[in-house]
Amino acid sequence: MLIKSARFAVSSPEVKNCPKPVFPEYAFIGRSNVGKSSLINMLVQQKGMAKTSSTPGKTQLINHFLVNENWYLVDLPGYGFSKTGKDKAAGFGKMISDYILQRENLMNLFVLIDSRLPMQKADESFFLWLGENQVPFSIVFTKADKSGRSTLNTNLANYRKKLLDYWEELPLVYITSVTTQTGRDELLNSIEEMNKNFKPY
Ligand code: GTP
Ligand code: MG
Asked: Most buried among 34, 52, 91, 109, by the most CB within 10 A?
């Protein structure tokens, strides 16, 4: 898919403040600092559209970006990190869970995982919560430029094994790097396909 335009639309503290659900949308979630905002910028080829930071906890609201005037990318706050220590056991709050469970035009959730690390507790609880709530998701491994091939393969195999304890089928998996642009075409192509299945309300 060709990106002709992309711009920030709105930041919302709650799902009820989000834009009217007239376009298909794709949300990016994962532990703080995993690279959600950077990946969104890489997809649209605009370095500063979504705010990034080397310190975890940068994204705090539900951020909508309008792409090609007819679909949304959504940047969510990270889980597994809390400045206030008020997070629930699963590591994410009501803003995120309400958004995921109530947003009717959410076509797919991309769960970002740092390709350098074995499965972290926060990720495991998040996957279980998605399973319990039957939320469709794909897995996006990030920072592939920083993980050696053998680490990447070991971690991938480990994820497959753990996920198969809970799911009969594995979700789609993407390997990405914002530095080398790896995975960009694959992600955009799959979004293009899913866009075709959107039925406006
Ligand atoms: P929060 O909003 O705090 O939850 O973080 P985030 O998941 O949005 O992460 P962000 O995009 O802000 O990136 C965190 C750090 O990782 C930044 O310093 C990025 O430059 C770096 N980073 C993100 N993606 C990549 C990548 O593919 N390769 C490398 N080498 N660094 C990356
Ligand atoms: Mg962010």
From this structure: 34
